[in-house]
Predict the 3D structure of the following.
Amino acid sequence: MNTSTRVSSIPGRRWRGLSVLLALSSSTVALAVPGSAIAQQSNGAAATSPPPIRWGACPKGEPPHPAPNPNVQCATIKVPLDWSKPGGTKIGLFVARHRATDPARRIGVLMSNPGGPGAPGADDALFADDPYSGYSAAMRQRFDMVGFDPRGIGRSQGARCDETIVEKIPTRPRNAAEFERLRTLNAKLADSCLKRTGPLAAHMDGESVARDMDAIRAALGERKISFIGHSYGTFLGERYARLFPNNLRALALDSAMDPARPNAERYLTDGSATVNSALKRLAAWCEKDVTCALKGKDLTAVTATLFARADAGTLRDPGPKGPTRTKVSADQLADFLTSAVGETAPDTAAEQLAALHTGKGEVRWSSPGVSLESRLVLCRDYDFRIRDHAHYSAIRKRVAKAAPHVRYNAQALDLVLGCQGWTMPPKPPPARAKGNLPPVLVVNATHDIATPLPGARRMAGAFPKATLFTMDVVGHWLYRKGGTEEAIRVINSHLTRPKG
């Protein structure tokens, strides 16, 4: 959406940096045996039961990356490439399991997904004991932690596209000609994915992944699973609940996507308004904290001046002794603000704003763009299509009014533009299956630029019994160490003892 363990440049990605460097294990699935759990179709009818998983050793990490926990097991299972044709071509899914360390008190399986979209998820189990973004010892005692690389991602037959096309695509189209060039090149990129990956490129949507999750559940021999989804993983959790409500024991959704599939304008507006509010929060901090590099100045007035200078072509990239000759555009400034106020510590953000204001110092510029995996997933799950450049310009103007201090959310705009002209059209949402859902917990930061609070509220409203827990912080992905431990405690409590 891909990559540090702090905040990603796309919704939800916190990689541990190891996934793409690992080779697939040689583990295979065993033949089916009586007594395995039955996989379910969305209408509740029994589907072909997958064979139980034959676990084996996990691939070793390549230096300098750490080796997986020795208690983790890995395997590859086979699922239909196209779930509408269950007897057709099969693809492999890479799965990892960290067994419960206290079998006598084991609750069951906790499956997870780290979002992205398009992020390898097996690392959640491979590094379940990670001190920063792993699970507590108490959770590892009670659950088998199960993670998987979604179809077409990482070790699950990773998709391939012609990446040389990406660098030719206009990142911020300024006129009708550039907008049409963006659409044409996006279409060419999508076609290259189909050519190099094959039919799998058109089947990486959330519904297909949710069906894969149920196939994993059945192969594990479990009647029910608990699930925790982070960022885009919350969309998968909602899809799984929609398709297989009776197969869920507990559901926790951390930093929630909007399940209502907002159009481009609402998606941009929600995200941009959140960046705007985060900037105002930074300004309030600067008024009170003596360490602020712009202490005594109104940060919103400073940004207004910076935009005016950028529009006039007089804003320059700062240097160690003063302004350089490199011009800074208004789009570069908007991209910087998204990154600075949403992902950076307030003192660092203020220092960089001060550097832009005075011309002396250093700014860490962000590069616009969206990963190929994100396009392959998101452009099928959401309908961000915009008619033409005139429609695009009108949306941008209305979004800027909703977020006057920052103009737009660069992450959200990257994703919206990445789907223009995509030749694999959005897939309709699946019908909701009948069944009894367990209580659902949704957690979200009040100032989350990747998954804004309005979408989390709509996520909570999508379930008959749901609790929305918020923390008044700026950031994304609350289930991590460092200031959001309260959310960890709330989630852990819900997963071990779900309450309505």
Q: What stands out?
A: The two ends are 32 Å apart (CA to CA). The domain at 19-159+204-261+432-496 is CATH 3.40.50.1820 (Rossmann fold).
